[in-house]
What we know:
Layout: H1 6-29, E1 34-37, H2 39-45, H3 47-88, H4 95-156, E2 160-163, H5 185-192, H6 203-208
Parallel strand pairs: 1-2
Helix pairs in contact: 2-5, 3-4
Amino acid sequence: MIPISIHMKKCLIPSLVATVVIAMGSLAQAETKIGLVDMNKIFSSYYKTEQAKKRIDEAQTVAQKELQDLVDVFNKNLDAIRKLNEELNKPELSKEAKEKKAKERDEKAEESKRQEKEIVELRQRRLKDLQDQAARMRAGIVEEIRKLVNDKVKSDQYDLVLDKSGLSSNGVEVVLYSKDTADFSEDIIKALNASKPKDAANPAQSGKSK
């Protein structure tokens, strides 16, 4: 083994320190660049989200009107059945008249069963239609948001982007702390609303007015 003199040690120490500093600098430059977004905030702040909600509300109003019309017809039929039962209880009613009214009542009872079934089936269909429509609209909006986030990732060279509005399996926020500079949600919101028509309502204001 070749001995190292004190002079050589003194020369090696600064050299080693310089090597460590250079290595640390390289590691710092190679650090993962992490960005954050608040998907809930972005989603609710996008003007198309409010437009989609209005379309769903309108479709729901139409569906409720359609159902109510069927329910009204159903209730009228029940009233007719009750009146027929009252008439059948009248002692002065002839046998022939009773048979006629009993037949009419039975026919209306069968009709009411069909109406009740139709109401249940229509309610289920319209509920599914509304759920499907809402899911399609939400998926389309989320896709637009994701595209802008991906564009931001490429332009600013992020290695990882986290959704700070997300929760873990234990119901705890995934991101417990972050610097404000890491969150570029406002940039995404601004880009999304750049094409907002002048007559479109502001989602935040619209939410407050309710």
